[in-house]
Amino acid sequence: MSPERIRLAVLSGSPPSSRTGPSVVRWFRGEAENFGEFEIDVLDLGADPLPAVITQPPDADAARRLATVSPRLAAAHAFVVVTAEYNHAYPAVLKAAIDWHTAEWQAKPVGFVSYGGRSGGLRAVEQLRLVFSELHTVTIRDSVSFPDVWKQFDEQGEPSDPEGCNHAAKVMLEQLLWWARSLKEARDRRPYTA
Fold first, then answer.
1. CA-CA distance, 182 to 99, in Å (whole number)?
2. In the predicted model, what is the mean pLDDT of residues 113-118?
3. Residue 2 confidence (pLDDT) above 60
4. What is the fold of 6-189?
5. Which of 109-113, 157-161, 190-194 is modeled with the greatest confidence?
6. What residues pair up with 7 in beta bridges, in sequence order?
7. In this structure, how many other beta carbons lie within 10 angstroms of the beta carbon of residue 71?
8. Residue 13 binned pLDDT confidence (cut-offs 50, 70, 90)
9. Residue 5 and residue 7: Cα distance in Å, rounded?
10. Where do the H-state alpha helices sit in the chain?
11. What's the whole-model pTM score?
């Protein structure tokens, strides 16, 4: 019997006006599909962002927005965050989505695909590693980054150096799969409590 497919939530924090964000997400989704081990769910957090201010209980608007995001995060066995870098950090829509949730993240692996200027979004990833550590996740060491992202994709939205980024994605996905299966087995045996 083959193991259960791992449910992978791909979180996109790019604003609706982004020219490059959708290309990066499309490329990564294709790589994850080609990898063949994941059931993929792409969450476009910029389409209907969660409020920045957390209220308990959530007001009606926040509850409506959470109802479309929270169950999908809870169902995921693993996550990949696709993020731009703004002012050496990650987008506010991503921060809001992370902060509205706690148990949904716990004892699950998180990988990163970043893009931006010269740093390729790596400063945003550095901050995300700290945040996700606080939420009891396991962050994947290897990531994918696109420095000077506007030069990395052609007019059709395809990578100009597919060999390099495809290889980086495969390495990260292999590590993510190992951690996702291992942590799922552990959670199935003993529920995780923070």
1. 25
2. 95
3. no
4. Rossmann fold (3.40.50)
5. 109-113
6. 39
7. 11
8. confident
9. 6
10. 21-35, 60-75, 92-99, 122-134, 162-189
11. 0.95
